[in-house]
Amino acid sequence: MTEEKEPYKVKNDSELNWVLGKYKEHQIQCDEYEIQAEESRKAIEEKYNAELYEIEMRRLKLQAEEQKEMDYFKGLAEQYYLTLETKSPKKTINGSVRFSKKENVSYDDNLLSELKEKGFGKFITAKTKTTESVDKKALKAFVKDGGQLVSEDGEIVEGFKFDKTEEFTVKV
């Protein structure tokens, strides 16, 4: 027959002191484990970050080298394309080349208030009863290739610039 042991019970202040001492020992050990784990995490993170940095730098270097080579071959293709009589897209098995029109549009944050101030209400649309916005499509169509918007009194409306350029593109 096995005898069941009764759980330990604190019976006096001396035993309470002993129990609290044991509790304190385990608390100190738990704190030590936490410190060790945090130190290990930091060491691993530093090593990981250093490795990631090396990988990223290697990637950037290799991509820069490849981009340099791509720019060289794009330049060769552009030189050839410029010698052609017609400037329609040229296709080959490996890809195509062409000049494509690119619109460069920039809008300033203060454009809405400036349009109001200089009498260009036709380029302002009401989104709701309380909010208005710049009708960028209408503004772009009005300005066309001039690049700037000029008021009736000859003042240039700052905050809006528009121009078109042609860009040589390669698609593979």
SSE blueprint and pairings:
Layout: H1 13-83, E1 90-92, E2 95-107, H2 111-117, E3 124-126, E4 132-134, H3 136-143, E5 149-150, E6 156-157, E7 160-171
Antiparallel strand pairs: 1-2, 2-7, 3-4, 5-6
Features:
172 residues, alpha+beta, 2 domains, three-stranded antiparallel beta sheet, 7 strands, 50% helix, Prophage protein, coiled coil, Gam-like, double-stranded DNA binding
- Helix-strand pattern: HEEHEEHEEE
Q: Main sheet? A: 3 strands, antiparallel
Strand segment tally = 7
Helicity range of the residues? 40-55%
Q: What is the overall number of helices?
A: 3
Shape: elongated
Mean pLDDT across every amino acid position: 87
Measure the end-to-end span.
86 Å
Pfam family, one: Phage_Mu_Gam
Keywords: Coiled coil
Coiled coil: 23-70
Organism: Lactococcus lactis
Write a short abstract of this structure:
This protein is an alpha+beta fold and 172 residues long.
Task: Please give a structural write-up.
This protein is an alpha+beta fold and 172 residues long. It has 3 helices and 7 strands. The strands form 3 sheets. A 3-stranded antiparallel β-sheet has the order 1-2-7. A hairpin with a 5-residue loop joins β5 (149-150) and β6. The chain is elongated, with a radius of gyration of 36 Å. The termini are far apart. One of its GO terms (biological process) is DNA protection. Residues 23-70 form a coiled coil. This is Prophage protein.
